[in-house]
Amino acid sequence: MTTATKKKTAPAPPLPADTPVLASVPADGLPAQLNYLTRALKTPTIGRVWEDIAEQARDENWSHEEYLAAVLQRQLADREASGTTMRIRTAHFPAIKTLEDFNLDHLPSLRRDVLAHLATGMFVPKAENVILLGPPGIGKTHIAIGLGVKAAYAGYSVLFDTASNWIARLAAAHHAGQLEAELKKIRRYKLIIIDEVGYIPFDQDAANLFFQLIASRYEQGSVMVTSNLPFGRWGETFSDDVVAAAMIDRLVHHAEVLTLTGDSYRTRTRRELLGKNRATND
Ligand SMILES: Nc1ncnc2c1ncn2[C@@H]1O[C@H](COP(=O)(O)OP(=O)(O)OP(=O)(O)O)[C@@H](O)[C@H]1O
Ligand SMILES: [Mg+2]
């Protein structure tokens, strides 16, 4: 007889006398019981792995406690992994970029210790902000997504969009008389990322909506912003120096501001390619 058949016919073990008898638990053998119990407890991983881990436990003479810890650990690891996958999916990143893929040598203006600290995600529960300023192609969006992915791994919900899409979303809600409800919904996300502030100028109404978004998260939830413009020029984008100043004030009160300088990674890659072609043609 194989071990597998032996296991299938294993009788249910005697239970302590004070165990309540649940009519719905199958009485016909241990596998059926475990199958039922793991489904009822919504622990499908345990349902899948208990048998293999039990085999390993027998082979390696584990204690009952060690076996229990091992199956629970597997369930927790799977649950955390699927939570992270879900958080990354619902963040709506335009592409998945990781900090591991980011070439730090290209960007000496970025302090590695600061980036490493931000990558722990610890700024999120403190409702602190991150502002990435710098010229086109320097890697602002890449870093913002990379940090967003890290925050998702650390267990925080994230929502990414461009500044103009955020405005469009708020304008639609405002139009429907639902602005407060929308801001409340957005507050459920622990970190929001607003990409590309500065490329498209906003009219006064849009600037006011943007201000309300920042104000509604002040000391409540983290905001990460990327912009090609230094703060001194935000008044141009928001067509109002006063609103821009009030917004910047709230954003930077508890924030890490990273000002990046250097060449565009996009054009550098192109320059390198052109250089290589020229060298081969010579
Ligand atoms: N240091 C780097 N290492 C690896 N890839 C990089 C680096 N910097 C930028 N990139 C890549 O170069 C491209 C441009 O970077 P990114 O989009 O992040 O720039 P940006 O600062 O957001 O520019 P823009 O202001 O035009 O939006 C992306 O494909 C990004 O992944
Ligand atoms: Mg960008």
What does this structure look like?
The protein has helices spanning 3-8, 30-40, 44-59, 64-90, 112-119, 140-153, 163-175, 179-187, 204-217, 234-237, 241-253, 265-281; strands at 129-133, 158-162, 191-197, 222-227, 255-259. By secondary structure, it is α/β, with parallel strands linked by helices. The chain has a 5-stranded parallel sheet, with helices on both faces. It starts with a helix and ends with a helix. The site of magnesium ion has 5 residues, from helix 6 and strand 3.
Largest sheet: 5 strands, parallel
CATH homology-level superfamily of the largest domain: P-loop containing nucleotide triphosphate hydrolases
Name of the CATH architecture of the largest domain = 3-Layer(aba) Sandwich
- Bound small molecules, which ones? adenosine-5'-triphosphate, magnesium ion
CATH fold label of the largest domain? Rossmann fold
Gyration radius (Cα, Å) is 27 Å
Q: Approximately how much helix is present in the residues?
A: 40-55%
Strand order of the largest sheet: 2-3-4-1-5
Summarize model confidence as the mean pLDDT: 90
Structural class: alpha/beta
Number of helices: 12
Poorly predicted spans: 1-9
Number of domains: 2
What is the strand tally?
5
Q: Choose one word for the global shape.
A: elongated
- Approximately how much beta-strand content do the residues carry? 5-15%
The end-to-end distance, rounded to whole angstroms, is 75 Å
Q: Return the CATH class of the largest domain.
A: Alpha Beta
Features:
alpha/beta; Rossmann fold; five-stranded parallel beta sheet; 12 helices; 54% helix; elongated; binds adenosine-5'-triphosphate; binds magnesium ion
